[in-house]
């Protein structure tokens, strides 16, 4: 029997190349650890994971019930940026670090956000349909009411890693940029050529509103009807963050009644959406299927990082990315500090 037991839901993966845990196991080599698959239902998962040393979370919600059943778990690791599938509060109460991969797909998501901005602004999907349907002469008139991109205002709701990467891409297009994020210092905003603003200022001033808030209970439906009513009738709303941060019914109403001009979305409130979701048939909506982070390096990078985080904690060290760092103050984990880095455990 292996020294460390890592339990993960069976058959739950975003894997491009199929199953297996070769990438995760690279960092775990030498630790005498095994990754065991467990049933996807909560009762079955609890039965299999009760004596686990680590949980590799994917595909199912790691609820308070699951967490409270764990007898000796040292870490719950996610191979994603979002941590909304784990009850972090329950894990914190049990002293279990929850790790994620917050910086692995930043460039890809920023590329996709910029792609959606440009596609929404220049009505790319509509133009493609016109060209394919033989409506060749309709394309140019449809764009004659749209101003040039240079000089327009891009507003960010939340200014984390992805938003900062988008700002770097948007600057050469000549966009003025503002951001609302009460947790980010003004100096950091100015370093990216972005002006601080209130949420109301972002909504009323922006020609593009880019949503980047994480999926946490406190920001559920952060953007609702009253916010869409504040936006310009010509505005494009972009979301590459999380669907539940937006009241989707309010967004649909805003698009139907012309409060805003267009929505370019990689995420929806329910995924996959119901076949009768109005967004699927609306001409003023550009959609992609929650693919912003995908690239050739997606599987390899995120899986290796998840394995590395589990290996660190099982070795008695601090993880690199802990979303509930308060637990580290009360554990016996050693301080792990990479060469050349002088910051804390969540650097």
TrEMBL record:
The lineage of its organism: Bacteria, Pseudomonadati, Pseudomonadota, Alphaproteobacteria, Acetobacterales. It comes from Craurococcus roseus. Pfam families: 2-Hacid_dh_C. Keywords: Oxidoreductase. InterPro entries: CtBP, D-isomer_2-hydroxyacid_DH, D-isomer_DH_NAD-bd, NAD(P)-bd_dom_sf. Residues 115-292 form the D-isomer specific 2-hydroxyacid dehydrogenase NAD-binding domain. Transmembrane segments: none annotated. This is C-terminal binding protein.
């Amino acid at each position: 029997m292996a020294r460390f037991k890592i339990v993960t839901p069976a058959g739950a993966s975003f894997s491009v190349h199929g199953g297996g845990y070769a990438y995760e196991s690279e960092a775990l080599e030498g630790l005498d650890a095994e990754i065991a698959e467990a049933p996807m239902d909560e009762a079955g998962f609890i039965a299999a994971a009760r004596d686990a040393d680590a949980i590799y979370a994917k595909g199912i919600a790691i609820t308070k019930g699951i967490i409270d059943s764990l007898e000796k778990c040292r870490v719950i690791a996610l191979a994603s940026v979002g941590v909304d599938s784990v009850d972090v509060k329950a894990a914190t109460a049990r002293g279990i670090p929850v790790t994620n991969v917050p910086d692995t797909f930043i460039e890809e998501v920023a590329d996709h956000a910029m792609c959606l901005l440009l596609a929404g602004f220049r009505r790319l999907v509509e133009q493609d349909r016109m060209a394919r349907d033989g409506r060749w002469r309709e394309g140019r008139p449809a764009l004659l009411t749209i101003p040039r991109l240079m000089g327009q205002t891009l507003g960010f709701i939340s200014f984390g890693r992805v938003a900062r990467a988008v700002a770097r891409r948007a600057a050469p297009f000549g966009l003025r940029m503002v951001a609302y994020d009460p947790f980010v210092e003004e100096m950091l905003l100015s370093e990216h050529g972005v002006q601080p603003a209130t949420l109301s200022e972002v909504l009323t001033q922006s020609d593009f509103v880019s949503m980047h808030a994480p999926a946490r209970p406190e920001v559920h439906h952060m953007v609702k009807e009253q916010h869409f009513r504040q936006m310009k009738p010509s505005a494009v709303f972009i979301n590459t963050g999380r669907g539940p941060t937006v009241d989707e019914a309010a967004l649909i109403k805003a698009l139907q009644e012309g409060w805003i001009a267009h929505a370019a979305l990689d995420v929806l409130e329910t995924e996959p959406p119901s076949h009768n979701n109005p967004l699927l048939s609306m001409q003023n909506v550009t959609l992609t299927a929650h693919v912003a982070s995908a690239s050739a390096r997606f599987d390899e990078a995120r899986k290796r990082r998840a394995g590395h985080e589990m290996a660190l904690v099982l070795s008695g060290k601090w993880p690199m990315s802990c979303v509930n760092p308060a637990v580290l103050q009360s554990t016996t984990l050693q301080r792990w500090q990479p060469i050349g880095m002088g910051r804390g455990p969540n650097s």
